[in-house]
Structures are given as C-alpha cells and as structure tokens.
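Private note to self, pasted from the team thread so I don't lose it. Backbone tokens:
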C-alpha cells in the first residue's frame, strides 16, 4: 500500500505527509522565485501578472494533478 501524500478538503487538497509538504514547498518556492524574477523587470502590476501567469498556472496545475493522484480517493 502506498502512503497518501494529500487528503481531500473541499475543492482543495491538504498535505498529510512529508512528501506532500515537500511538493507544496517546491511549488511555492518556484512561484516566489518567478515572481521576484518577473517583478524585477516589470514596469507595472499588469506586466507582473502577465509575466507570472504562464509559470504559475502550470505549476499549480501539476501540483493539483499530483495531489489528486496521491490522495487515495476512489475513481
């Protein structure tokens, strides 16, 4: 039996193991890093939002996919 990394909590998933927390930490670190890199070269708030969008949406999507696969819910 594989250990669950996440559990369902409404529409989101909560990490319940060290691997789940590591996945959340890695995605959050990536998002902070891309925000700082994009914001350093942006002229306005909209430039920053348009700049981070192509990075954040796939990162959060992959995290959601991993959470769904490791939550142990019945399909």
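Design output:
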């Amino acid at each position: 039996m594989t250990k669950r990394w996440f559990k369902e909590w409404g529409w989101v998933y909560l990490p319940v193991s060290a691997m789940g927390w590591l996945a959340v930490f890695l995605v959050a670190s990536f998002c902070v890093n891309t925000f700082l890199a994009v914001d350093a070269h942006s002229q306005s708030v909209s430039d920053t939002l348009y700049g981070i969008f192509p990075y954040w949406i796939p990162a959060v999507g992959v995290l959601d996919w991993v959470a769904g696969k490791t939550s142990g819910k019945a399909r």
